[in-house]
Amino acid sequence: DGGITQSPKYLFRKEGQNVTLSCEQNLNHDAMYWYRQDPGQGLRLIYYSQIVNDFQKGDIAEGYSVSREKKESFPLTVTSAQKNPTAFYLCASSDGLGAGYGYTFGSGTRLTVV
Amino acid sequence: QKEVEQNSGPLSVPEGAIASLNCTYSDRGSQSFFWYRQYSGKSPELIMSIYSNGDKEDGRFTAQLNKASQYVSLLIRDSQPSDSATYLCAVTEYGNKLVFGAGTILRVKS
């Protein structure tokens, strides 16, 4: 079945540590996105990529980095510069918002600082 | 910063009633509008999309769009306890991406 796989489901980060969240899709979608969700809040855009080897900052990119070396993969690194990384991280992909297809989301990674 | 506003709720309705969820947006250039349902601890799932003024029906769900008033709504007929969730409104923004509202919590009481 086609879909988006995020791993791990739960991740614990120590102070000063960089961690990488994985996102893989087999939907053949060109566009991929990373959002962060905090309790009681909506989704905030971190980074997005419309095509391989290209990506743009979203509204809250500070302290995060991404790469898009393959169409299927869009990993997110949470660096030590991100001071409050505890949140629910969602990866999504799209085949074209204008056509009304919306996003397909992965199951999410819950990151906690310990 | 483009904004999407939703009443946070919770909106409580009895089983079998109609639930009405509302959303306003600030960007007049937005073209497509989406409603997602999110259960606690889970990722959002798409339930409706709309891009033309008027109503769009899919089963028990009806999305309504009024671009002049910058308003989009979701009606859920014959509400069921399984409809209890957070409903997120999302609006397209220039650059092929979505801006999300904070969501409305819906509780359907049996």
Verbal overview:
The complex is a heterodimer of chains A (114) and B (110). Chain A is 0% helix and 50% strand. Chain A has strands at 4-7, 10-13, 19-25, 31-37, 43-51, 54-57, 64-66, 76-78, 87-94, 103-105, 109-113. In chain A, strands 2, 4, 5, 6, 9, 10 and 11 form a seven-stranded mixed β-sheet that branches. In chain A, strand 5 (43-51) and strand 6 (54-57) form a beta hairpin. The model of chain A has no long low-confidence stretch (mean pLDDT 93). Chain B contains no helices and eleven strands. Chain B has strands at residues 4-5, 11-14, 19-25, 33-38, 45-50, 54-58, 61-66, 71-76, 85-93, 97-100, 104-109. In chain B, strands 2, 4, 5, 9, 10 and 11 form a six-stranded mixed β-sheet that branches. In chain B, strands 1-3-8-7-6 form a five-stranded antiparallel β-sheet, with no helix packed on it. In chain B, a hairpin with a 3-residue loop joins strand 9 and strand 10. Chain A binds chain B through residues 31, 33, 35, 40-45, 48, 50, 56, 58-59, 90, 94, 96-98, 100-108, and chain B through 1, 4, 8, 31-32, 34, 36, 42-46, 49-51, 88, 90, 92, 95-103.
Topology:
The complex is a heterodimer of chains A (114) and B (110).
Chain A: E1 4-7, E2 10-13, E3 19-25, E4 31-37, E5 43-51, E6 54-57, E7 64-66, E8 76-78, E9 87-94, E10 103-105, E11 109-113
Parallel strand pairs in A: 2-11
Antiparallel strand pairs in A: 1-3, 3-8, 4-5, 4-9, 5-6, 7-8, 9-10, 9-11
Chain B: E1 4-5, E2 11-14, E3 19-25, E4 33-38, E5 45-50, E6 54-58, E7 61-66, E8 71-76, E9 85-93, E10 97-100, E11 104-109
Parallel strand pairs in B: 2-11
Antiparallel strand pairs in B: 1-3, 3-8, 4-5, 4-9, 6-7, 7-8, 9-10, 9-11
